[in-house]
Amino acid sequence: MSEKGKIRVGITQGDINGIGYEIIFKTFENPEMFDICTPVVYGSPKAAAYHRKALEMETPYNAIENAGEAQAGKLNIINCNSDELHIELGTSTPESGLAAFQALERAIKDYHEGLIDVLVTAPINKSAIQSEKFHFPGHTEYLQECSGEGEKALMILCSGSMRVAVATSHMALRDVPEAITAELLEEKIAQLDRSMKEDFNIDAPKIAVLSLNPHAGDNGLLGKEEIEVIAPTVRKMNDNGIFCYGPFAADGFMGSGKHTAFDAILAMYHDQGLAPLKALSMDDGVNFTAGLSILRTSPAHGVAYDIAGKGEADENSFRQAIYAAIDILRNRNMYSYARRNPLRKLYFEKRDDSNKLNLQQPDSDI
Predict the structure, then answer these.
(1) Which of 13, 21, 54, 130 could form a disulfide with 309 if both were Cys (CB 3.0 to 4.6 A apart)?
(2) 3-class DSSP assignment, residue 268
(3) Is the dihedral of CA 43, 44, 48, 51 positive or negative?
(4) Would you say 9 and 122 are in contact if contact means Cβ atoms under 8 Å apart?
(5) How do 264-269 and 206-210 pair as beta strands?
(6) Residues 54, 92: Cα–Cα separation, whole Å
(7) Quick check: bond before 177 cis, omega within 30?
(8) Interhelix angle 139-146/94-112, nearest 10 degrees
(9) Which CATH superfamily is domain 1-149+292-366 in?
(10) Strand extents, DSSP E, 28-125
(11) Cβ-based neighbour number of residue 337 at 10 Å
């Protein structure tokens, strides 16, 4: 954290030809944002000046060499790109992809060195950013690779009390059925349960698991994945102490209001979960990468080339991404603090028919 104890929020500029700088400037036009964090933008002062002029905005910023120089109460920008950077608003270019990657690479380096506390990423163009160093379908997979600890990422889209995770994220639809295995679903359900407890401060989360096929397979008529894989996995995870239910037919789940009865939802593939959430909450949705030590959020929208430089972008989703990152960091700290000195557990195991008292000694007193 910064000297005054404020959370340092690292912000990557995203695609310089999109709306990244617009939503950053609009967010920090409000001076109250500086009361809750110290922003450090990884990008280009030249690109920032270009966008500010094109948008006729007056949001001030402070050019710095490294995150250690970040000043509270100011929008700090670190130069990660060449001074010869060329900007073409509304256009995908190899240069814009490289600029986005250089900012992301520097931000992750600083995160690992403890110079920033959380990471908020502005939208990238997934095709423009591809290179020898970035050969991933998106931020989520790249961050998983950069975690360096064998961690597995889980994509969760959040809006208010609605949290939707996906079992398969950036994957071609034709590859999804084969990818839906019991092992994968066990992993994702366990991750989602853990994230609800650690990241969202929900002690006993209830998780809804969606079906893969229309009408939940109609008893095998439209597919057998529900009968052979999803339903048995849901039962197994319940036996293991995780409160999950389903599979629910995905088409009517949101429209019927069933989602309001659950703390989280696990969808089988990207559009199944994200399309309805974005339809309901596009302006305030947040993409959160759970399961990693790197704490990263982003707005729920893309680069929006069609409105770049026009002053029409809505910054609320980006602002909510900053709020979410700060809240999740605090929740993680509270979760860790509350469990730093665990007591010796004395309890009856409900699934043990012997009715004997179990004495469990924790692995460590720390």
Answers:
(1) 54
(2) strand
(3) negative
(4) no
(5) parallel
(6) 18
(7) no
(8) 40
(9) Isopropylmalate Dehydrogenase (3.40.718.10)
(10) 37-43, 62-64, 76-79, 118-121
(11) 9
316 CB-contact burial (10 Å; exposed 0-12 / middle 13-18 / buried 19+): middle
What crossing angle do the helices spanning 182-198 and 231-239 adopt, rounded to 10°?
50
Please choose, from the candidates 117, 120, 136, 40, the residue with its C-alpha nearest in 3D space to the C-alpha of residue 289. 120
291: nearest Cα among 164, 116, 151, 141:
151
- Distance between CA 21 and CA 48 in Å, rounded? 6
pTM: 0.89
Quick one: tokens of 57?
A: 């905005």
Domain ranges for the chain, please list them.
1-149+292-366, 154-291
Q: pLDDT 10s per residue in the chain (366 long)?
A: 555 579 999 999 999 999 999 999 999 999 999 999 999 999 999 999 999 999 999 999 999 999 999 999 999 999 999 988 999 999 999 999 999 999 999 999 999 999 999 999 999 999 999 999 999 989 999 999 988 678 899 999 999 889 999 999 888 999 999 999 999 999 999 999 999 999 999 999 999 999 999 998 888 888 999 999 999 999 999 999 999 999 999 988 888 888 889 999 999 999 999 888 888 777 889 999 999 999 999 999 999 999 999 999 999 999 999 999 999 999 999 988 888 877 776 655 555 544 444 444 444 433
Topology of the domain covering 154-291: Isopropylmalate Dehydrogenase (3.40.718)
Q: Which residues contact 245 (CB under 8 A, 6 or more apart)?
A: 206, 207, 208, 209, 234, 262
d(CA 183, CA 138): 23
Q: Alpha-carbon distance 25 to 6, whole Å?
A: 20
The reply to whether domains 1-149+292-366 and 154-291 share a CATH topology is yes
Helix (H, G, I), strand (E, B) or coil at 235: helix
